[in-house]
Structures are given as C-alpha cells and as structure tokens.
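Exercise 7b. Backbone tokens:
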C-alpha cells in the first residue's frame, strides 16, 4: 500500500489555524485593537462596515513597522513580543503568539499602511490567501492603518455561519468596550458605516466607565482599591441598589487583559451577598494586577481564560476588596473616590512574592473561612446544557422506572405522540403543595409531582405562541412610562428586537442614543416594573443567542415564559394549584418545558410497592 500522509499546503494550514483565532468579525477587532495598544498608540480608531463582514479597519498612531517587519508581521509565529518561553511569564503585552495577523491574512483581503516616526516613507502591503500581492513605498502618517475586507471570502462555510449584522455588531461593541475600558488613557473611536457610535476621550477609569456605560453610572460607582505585595485590585463596583437583572456590565481584567472567570465572578457576587436580590447582578469593572509569573495566559486560543498559580488567594482578595469597598461606602456614602490614573500604570507587583507572604495570606481568617467551604460547589457550571440535563434525567434507571413519559424531544416540539401516554390527574383529586415548589396530584395509577415553575413555563409558552400567532399579545399602557438606559451592546440588541417586541405586547420607543421609553408591557406582566422586565428579558434572550435554529420571536417567547413563570418557593393556594395543573394538562405538550426539562414526574403504584419490597 502506498503511504497516505501528506503535508497540507500552507494556505490551507493557515486557514485551519485561523479558525482558532478568528471566529467572527469581533475576534479580528479584538486582535487588531490589541496590536495597536501593544504598539503604544495613544489614539485608536476602529471603522467597520456591514458589522465587520465587509470591512474592519484599525488606524493607530503607534510605533509603526519597518518595511521588513511589515512583511514579517503576517508570517505565522512571527512576533516582536517574546523571544523564548521564559518571556511568556513576564509578558506585559496583549499579544505574544505571532498568530493574529497571519490568521487574518488567511481569511480576509488585507491592506496595511505603516510608517515608523523615524522613517521618511512608509510601506504599503496587500495580501490575499496568505500571499503578498503588492508591496510598495507609500506616504503615510506615523503609525499603522490596517484594513481587512470581506472576512471569510475564501471560507464560505464560515461566512455562512456569521449571524445577522446586529448580532455581529453587538459582539464587536463588546470587544471594543473591553479594550477601551482597560486603557482609559488611550483615545478610542468606533465608526459603523459612516456613523460614529462611540467617541471616547482620554481620561480616568471612572470617566471611561461613565462614557461607555452611561452618565447614570456617575453617582453609582464605588471605588475598590487594595494593594498587597502579592497583587493589586482596583476599579469600581456598582452600589448594591443599582444591581440589574442583566449580567451585562461585569468586567474583570487581569494585567489589563479582559478575562472570563466564573470563579472570580463568584467572589464578587459573594461580597454582595445579602445586599442584593438573588437574581440580580451588580456592575463591576475590576482590575487585578499581579506578577505575570503568577498567571498562565496561554491556556486558551483567544486568551480569555487564564490560570492563576494560586487562584484561591486571588478569590479571597477579590472578595475581601469588594466587601471592604462596599462597607466603606455604606459608612460614608458621599465620599467620592476618583482613581488616580497613575495606578493604572503601576507595575503589577514590585516585590516578588515570598513563601512568607503566601503563608500569611493562607493563614488569614478570610482565607480560612473561604477554603473551608468547598467553594467549587457554589459555582454555577458555565454552560449548562439543557439537553444533557434532560438526558441524564431520563437515562437514569431510577427515573426511567418512575416515569411513563416517552421519548420526548429536547425542543419540546411535538415528539412522537404515539409514545406519550396521555395521563391526567384524577379530576377533583386533592392537591398538595410540597416545599412551596411541587404540587402532588393523584392519577389512576399512582401520583405525580408537578414542578410549579416548569409547569407554568410550559403554560405561558403555549399561551404566548397562540397569542402571537393570532392578533398578538395585548399590551397594557403604563401610567408613567419608564426610561431605561442600556449599555452600547444591549442598545443594539434592543433596537434589533424592537419590532418583534411590539407584537408581543411591549410598547417601546427609542429615546436618544442609548435610552428607551417603555410605554407599555404585555398585559399581566411587569407593570410598575418595566425596567427590570426588559432587563431580564434581554438577559434571558442572550442565553439563546447561540441557538441558531430559533427565530427571534421564538427566542423572545421562550425568554418571556421563563421570566414570567412562578418561582419555586412561592406558596400557592388550592385554587391556584388547581388552575395550574388543569392548564398544564390542557397544553399540547404538557410533559416538558420548552427547554426540554420535565414538568412533572409520575410515581406509579407498582414502582413504589417494589421499592418497599412488596
Ligand atoms: N498596529 C501595529 N503597529 C506596530 N506593529 C504591529 C502592529 N500590529 C502588529 N504589529 C507587529 O506585528 C507582529 C505580529 O502581530 P500579530 O498580532 O500577528 O502577533 P502578536 O501580536 O505578536 O501576537 P498575537 O498573535 O498573540 O496577537 C507583532 O508582534 C508586532 O511586532
Ligand atoms: Mg497581536
């Protein structure tokens, strides 16, 4: 047999590698902005057209590149930022892999114009399919001007995967916001087509937060600042009363790099415990600076996840710093801290960490209480898959025996009707609420436990679907229209959903750049609480954003049903239990929530008897 292994041609290898780094326009935006920051720019402009699908351009006044470097920059593994593996642990730049430009050149048509201040002429270079198609001297201002056109023009499968313009634009604004928040001393602007959507003058961190998240935040920020010789934590958190129903405005930066961390988020949420409602989210913009040797940033292709050498210490400090700040604020609520901008340039840690310091931290009472609890249990899984959850339930032998529910589909769409035994509680049989969460009812072969929240979600879902298909859900005008101000990316989202929301009974008008007037909400929902209704609806909606197969309306209806369903822990009287169970069994698909979780479980007599050994 002949040998069968071959090397892939370079351009294909590059395209495959690019998939790791550039998934969508927003990932290219992130890479280009970070390069401009690394180049020491003090002014950075981002221009996109068509939500980045046709153009992404970044213009900076940074140090520029020599003729040779401009060409080298697009080679894979070509970087000026590290020389050896050791450097990875002293890194102070955003980039280090030498992958970004190579990836971009593999999946878009790229033009770079760049000049170093010391050179008389600049360099123009054009690439397509990873190959240079043109290179010549050019007159150019100092700095770099890089544009990438027609992203994924040569990878149609990827291009087809891109979402609607508003959805991609939201991702871009999110990435832009992250970089802009972590470098308030740099001027940033963002143009979409010909419109300038953000214009951020240089200033303090507080000013930057207010520029981005809205003026309303000005009086609502509490400064956080703790310095130790292991790490510094600084930034701002929202006063407890400003916690919102949407998770949007939460930012953690480690050595100026935005990171996602359920773990650190948990630390902050813990600091707010008992100060805010369980389902609400405080805003925070927090920076942790520590010796780069204490973090590994090379654990994720887009660098958004990192590994701390000792994450428990970081957790304990983050929680303590926020708690401390909140406590101080409640003692002297008028005290207004403006953060000295110089702290942003502080070297992460001047003194190296000693074993002694570490031991001192570990011995602190805070750390002790923290580590005694097995905190891992408290952390929500980042990505709960409804399907998995559902499967586990049905595949476990116990519940198999306990239920008669047949083969249902995850979507709660119509499953194989034949297999579902239509089962009803005996009409008029006694109902009982257990733990303010479940309702027990008799059937002719045992009993069922109805999950009140899941059942209600199913009922509302079918009700909304029917109403939306007919003449729409009626709305109820508010006596006092509420104004809500949203973050830039939520503004895009709400604008995008406006039309669908009208059909579902919301009366909302745009009212200035990032402000909306809510004149009415669907009958029976949210009156007097328009703001949090909209906020939690947006938050729910975002949970669906990766599910391509649902229409906007479907996602909204699912979100509304979930949002409006009665919560566990709500006591129900006899009449309420009766109407809930009756309405559930009148549903087209009573046995699962729209998300595929069971709404009730049946316990058959013979199964119970067997359990008792009878
Ligand atoms: N805007 C810019 N101004 C000046 N030099 C730049 C600019 N963008 C890129 N470079 C140079 O090109 C090199 C390659 O950039 P690229 O983004 O591909 O890799 P990197 O930033 O080193 O690492 P990473 O892949 O992690 O981003 C950089 O190391 C830098 O020297
Ligand atoms: Mg880079």
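Sequence design result:
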């Amino acid at each position: 047999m002949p040998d069968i292994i071959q090397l892939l041609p370079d351009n294909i290898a590059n395209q495959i590698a690019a998939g790791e780094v550039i998934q969508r326009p927003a990932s290219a935006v992130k890479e280009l902005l970070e390069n401009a920051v690394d180049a020491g720019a003090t002014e950075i402009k981002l221009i996109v057209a068509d939500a980045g699908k046709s153009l992404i351009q970044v213009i900076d006044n940074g140090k520029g590149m020599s003729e040779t470097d401009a060409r080298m920059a697009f080679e894979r593994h070509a970087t000026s930022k590290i020389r050896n593996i050791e450097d990875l642990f002293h890194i102070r730049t955003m980039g280090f892999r030498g992958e970004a430009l190579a990836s971009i050149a593999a999946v878009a048509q790229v033009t770079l114009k760049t000049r170093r201040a010391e050179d008389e002429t600049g360099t123009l270079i054009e690439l397509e399919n990873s190959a240079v198609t043109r290179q010549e001297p050019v007159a150019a201002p100092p700095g770099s001007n890089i544009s990438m056109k027609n992203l994924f023009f040569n990878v149609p499968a990827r291009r087809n995967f891109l979402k609607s313009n508003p959805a991609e634009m939201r991702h871009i604004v999110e990435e832009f916001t992250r970089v802009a928040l972590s470098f308030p001393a740099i001027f940033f602007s963002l143009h979409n087509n010909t419109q300038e959507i953000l214009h951020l003058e240089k200033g303090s961190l507080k000013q930057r937060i207010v520029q981005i998240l809205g003026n309303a935040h000005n009086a609502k920020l509490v400064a956080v600042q703790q310095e130790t010789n292991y790490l510094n934590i600084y930034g701002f958190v929202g006063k407890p009363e400003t916690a919102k129903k949407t998770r949007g405005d939460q930012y953690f930066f480690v050595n100026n790099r935005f990171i996602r961390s359920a773990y650190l988020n948990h630390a902050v949420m813990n600091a707010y415990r008992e100060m805010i409602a369980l389902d609400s989210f405080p805003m925070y913009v927090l920076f942790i600076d520590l010796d780069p040797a204490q973090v590994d940033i090379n654990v994720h292709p887009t660098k958004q996840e990192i590994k701390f050498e000792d994450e428990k210490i970081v957790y304990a400090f983050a929680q303590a710093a926020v708690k401390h700040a909140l406590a101080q604020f409640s003692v002297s609520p008028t005290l207004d801290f403006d953060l000295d901008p110089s702290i942003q340039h502080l070297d992460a840690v001047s003194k190296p960490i000693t074993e002694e310091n570490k031991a001192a931290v570990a011995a602190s009472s805070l750390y002790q209480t923290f580590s005694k609890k097995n905190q891992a249990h408290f952390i929500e899984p980042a990505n709960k898959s409804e399907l998995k959850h559902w499967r586990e339930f049905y595949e476990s032998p116990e519940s198999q025996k306990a239920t008669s529910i047949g083969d249902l589909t995850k979507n709660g769409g119509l499953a194989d009707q034949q297999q579902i035994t239509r089962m009803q509680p005996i009409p008029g049989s006694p109902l009982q609420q257990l733990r303010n969460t479940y309702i027990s009812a008799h059937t002719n072969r045992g009993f069922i436990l109805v999950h009140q929240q899941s059942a209600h979600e199913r009922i509302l879902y079918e009700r909304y679907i029917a109403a939306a298909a007919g003449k729409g859900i009626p709305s109820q005008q508010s006596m006092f229209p509420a104004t809500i101000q949203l973050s830039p990316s939520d503004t895009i989202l709400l604008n995008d959903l406006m039309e669908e929301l009208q059909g579902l009974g919301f009366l909302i008008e745009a009212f200035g750049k990032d402000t909306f007037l809510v004149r009415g909400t669907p009958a029976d929902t949210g009156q007097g609480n328009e703001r949090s209704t909209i906020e939690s609806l947006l938050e729910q909606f975002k949970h669906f954003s990766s599910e391509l197969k649902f229409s906007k309306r479907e996602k909204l209806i699912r979100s509304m049903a979930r949002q409006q369903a009665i919560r566990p822990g709500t006591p129900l009287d006899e009449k309420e239990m009766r109407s809930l169970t009756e309405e559930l069994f009148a549903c087209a698909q009573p046995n699962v929530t729209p998300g595929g979780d069971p709404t009730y479980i049946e316990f058959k007599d013979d199964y119970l008897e067997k359990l008792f050994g009878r």
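Instructor comment: The two ends are 65 Å apart (CA to CA). The CA atoms of residues 467 and 473 lie 5 Å apart.
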